[in-house]
Amino acid sequence: QLLDTPGLIPGFNLSELLGQEGGATNFSEIYRQCQRDAALWQSLHLDQSVSLDELLNISQYTGEISMAFEKMNITLSPISLLSQSQRDLLLNASQAGQAPDFTPTLEQLDQNVTQGSLLDLAAELEQLADKAGADVKEDLKADARKLRELDKEMQTSFSGPLQSLKENIHLVQSGAAQLEAQTKAALDKASKTQEFLERETANIIKNETWAFLEELLDFFETYISWAKSRLTEDVARCKPIAQTLDNVEVITCNYILDSL
């Protein structure tokens, strides 16, 4: 209270010393703040003389960063997915890969396995047996039975593989017919992809780089916010100053002056 008396020390003003215009900071208030273990930033009201928000505000730099970033020119090497020679090679290969005409082959497969009909031959042998003598009649009939059995065995053995062969031929024909169209479609997609990459790759890189830069700026803002809170609330707590003053008061007043 004695130190706070106006004019006690000529020309001394604590608020002006701390750079506070029209402030009312005094020693009594500082003492009470220190008793509550406040930081010196709060006790001395330094926010009135130093603006942390203005000093540590990085938004004033983001405009310059943004302008510099917009002026940045990204130049990439030419992108070539397929050269013209490779395109011609694929197209020629698809055109040369057309299947031959399997129509005669399919017509032959639809006929009997043998050149003539074994059943017809067996029927002819039976007719001859009816007209032949007794000495060869039974032999001809036996041969006719063998021919019928052979025809039955051949039908059983060859029907499955022949059907599979015909299906494979049809698959080859349909696949070869689509080969050229599929090759052209793939080449068209490659051309569109190359055009997209040449047109958009620079923008994609720029956008991703700006997103990364914004993330870095967010990290800085978070750090600055933490630093401001630490500086204004935790750094240089002044309770020891108040305790030291209390100890001086006890020793000086209670033990020395009171004893006198």
From TrEMBL:
It is found in: Cell projection, Microvillus membrane. It comes from the Eukaryota. The keyword Oxidoreductase does not apply. It is a multi-pass membrane protein. GO terms for molecular function: cholesterol binding. Pfam families: Prominin. GO terms for cellular component: apical plasma membrane; cell surface; cilium; microvillus membrane; prominosome. The keyword Transmembrane applies. Keywords: Glycoprotein, Membrane, Transmembrane, Transmembrane helix. Belongs to the prominin family. This is Prominin-2. The lineage of its organism: Eukaryota, Metazoa, Chordata, Craniata, Vertebrata.
